[in-house]
UniProtKB/TrEMBL annotation:
Keyword set, alphabetical order: Hydrolase, Magnesium, Metal-binding
Cofactor: binding comment: Binds 1 Mg(2+) ion per subunit.
Pfam families linked to this entry: 5_nucleotid
Protein's name in the database: 5'-nucleotidase domain-containing protein 3
NCBIfam families per the UniProt record, alphabetical: HAD-IG-Ncltidse
GO MF term list: 5'-nucleotidase activity; metal ion binding
InterPro entries: HAD-like_sf (IPR036412), HAD-SF_hydro_IG_5-nucl (IPR008380), HAD_sf (IPR023214), Pur_nucleotidase (IPR016695)
PANTHER family: 5'-NUCLEOTIDASE DOMAIN-CONTAINING, 5'-NUCLEOTIDASE DOMAIN-CONTAINING PROTEIN 3
Cofactor: Mg(2+)
Presence of keyword Hydrolase: yes
Protein residues bound to GMP: 99
Similarity comment: Belongs to the 5'(3')-deoxyribonucleotidase family.
Residue positions of the active site: 97, 99
């Protein structure tokens, strides 16, 4: 009963769309003819209420039977997920970004960045008073200052929900001339978004025209670096697992390099804390202040050597030596000096534009994205509340799709109740992740813009580098074959649990 229902629920598109086309054709499989016949006619006695109610109850019963099977295959939040097939056997060289890839920060850093930027705004743009305070009010889907703007108001304000291409941010997610909508893509964006909200709120309350330029030019990075260096233990969250990952790669004879936009002393102090004073022995090449994504595109910027005392030397660089730190440079020179080309290189970063996009599109390195939110989202997805909500939402959607063919008044009244229930389920599914934004990976049925970019630019993705500790270095990552809209999902994970998936909670223990 359970598998049959799953098949019915998933195959509604085939039943309705393909049934008419295929009926009577010699190649129509018997099961498809059966399904088509089953839903093309209504009840023999014409009692639509009883007929629809019976199907509703049957779907409910089937979902209840299916849930134990789904719940027995929970995803491990520390798993690595693949967009493309990739074997670690082929990877000889591992590269890393620094911030939010090797180093993770405590929430104190958000407060530091917010307060620093706020003080700069107050001091440099005296229009804003100290009443901005230290807000931690979370943001929501549509906001004006701190006020939630309903979806319908947003749609009215922008004449729909479509964002014209010319208003979107540029390729790297930044706002520039004409591209007014900036994308906030990394964890450093959290205090920035909060400050924007505060400033907007202040402008609205004081009837001041909003000027994006006012806060665009607040440069807090230098001040942030000095504050973090002065109190490393307060701001860097943990280091043991990063250290263990690097040790594992070194013990397996892998080469390693670091390319970061952060400055030398900041990285040195952080890595001393995370890995130890000998951290440079693990890395074959260290590049600081690389100015990614320019590093990947601008051939003109040369490498410079930085001395242990932070002095920049101007000698032409003919080789990148182990144990030394280099500044700036560009990828073309890097490839020439190291010979590390193509798919034997795997680079990890947390910013899918600045770190990963160019490498994927132009240079052919393999890429790994670090997405910390993945852990909390997977933990939620493993709860029975989420499983029950999503299973019933999908089954109810399948019922609606099939039963919409009954246009009589009584059927339509029942279907309206189902549509209402479906909307409540969708709202509930969004609230489970985040009451304002929902999941960062999905918006209702569809992948978010972020996920689409992630799928394009990252071969693999995981919540933290430490996930690598769960796999040996010969492991091959296989992406799941997810059904396309015109494909029958008969090979989906639900019908054959574990057949095409990543390791689940039980199996992953064996891989270490
Ligand atoms: Mg980073």
């Amino acid at each position: 009963m359970a598998p049959a229902l799953s098949l019915l629920g998933g195959c509604c598109r085939v039943t309705l769309a393909a049934g008419r086309r295929l009926t009577g054709s010699p190649g129509t499989p018997p099961w498809l003819r059966h399904l088509s016949a089953r839903y093309s006619s209504g009840p023999e006695d014409g009692d639509m209420r009883r007929y629809l109610s019976a199907h509703y109850k049957e779907a409910r019963r089937g979902i209840n039977e299916l849930i134990p099977s789904i719940s027995s295959n929970l995803f491990n939040p520390s798993a690595i997920f693949a967009n493309n097939e990739m074997s670690l056997d082929d990877i000889e060289i591992y590269g890393f970004d620094y911030d939010y890839t090797l180093a993770f920060y405590s929430k104190d850093l958000h407060t530091l960045i917010f307060n620093t930027a706020r003080d700069l705004l107050i001091n440099e743009h005296r229009k804003i008073e100290s009443s901005l305070g230290a807000h931690d009010k979370p943001l929501c889907k549509g906001i004006s200052g701190f006020d939630v703007v309903s979806d319908s108001e947003v749609i009215e304000m922008y004449q729909g929900s479509h964002v014209p291409l010319e208003q979107m941010s540029d390729f790297y997610g930044k706002s520039s001339e004409g591209n007014t909508l900036k994308q906030f893509m990394d964890i450093f964006s959290l205090p920035e978004m909060t400050l924007l909200s505060c400033v907007n709120d202040y402008f609205l309350k004081n009837n001041i025209d909003y000027e994006p330029d006012t806060i665009r030019d607040v440069h807090v990075k230098g001040l942030m670096y000095r504050a973090v260096e002065a109190d490393i233990e307060r701001y860097i969250r943990y280091g043991e697992r990063t250290r263990a990952v690097l040790a594992k790669l070194a013990n397996n004879g892998k080469k390693m390099f670091l390319i970061t936009n952060s400055p030398s002393s900041f990285v040195d102090k952080g890595m001393n804390f995370i890995v130890g004073k000998d951290w440079r022995d693990l890395f074959d090449v260290v590049i600081v202040q690389a100015e990614k994504p320019n590093f990947f595109n601008d051939k003109r910027r040369p490498f410079r050597k930085v001395t242990d005392r932070g002095v920049l030397l101007w000698d032409k660089i003919h080789q990148l030596e182990k144990g030394k730190i280099y500044k700036q440079g560009n990828l073309f020179e890097f490839l020439k000096l190291t010979g590390w080309r193509g798919s034997k290189v795997l680079y990890f970063g947390d910013h899918i534009y600045s770190d990963l996009a160019d490498l994927t599109l132009k240079h052919g390195w393999r890429t790994g994205a670090i997405i910390p939110e993945l852990k909390s989202e997977l933990t939620i997805m493993n709860t029975s509340e989420y499983i029950q909500t999503m299973a019933w939402l999908q089954s109810l959607t399948g019922l609606l799709e099939r039963m919409q063919i009954y246009r009589d008044a009584e059927s339509q009244m029942i279907l309206q109740d189902w549509i209402k229930e479906r909307q409540e389920l969708r709202d509930m599914a969004r609230r489970i992740f985040n009451p304002r934004f929902g999941s960062i990976f999905r918006t209702d049925h569809n992948p978010t813009y972020f996920l689409r970019r992630l799928s394009r630019f990252a071969d693999i993705y995981m919540e933290s580098l430490s996930c690598l500790l769960n796999y040996d270095l010969h492991y091959t990552f296989y992406p799941k074959r997810t059904p396309l809209q015109h494909e029958v999902p008969m090979w989906s994970e639900q019908q054959y649990p574990g057949a095409f998936g990543i390791p689940f909670l039980q199996e992953i223990a064996q891989l270490k």
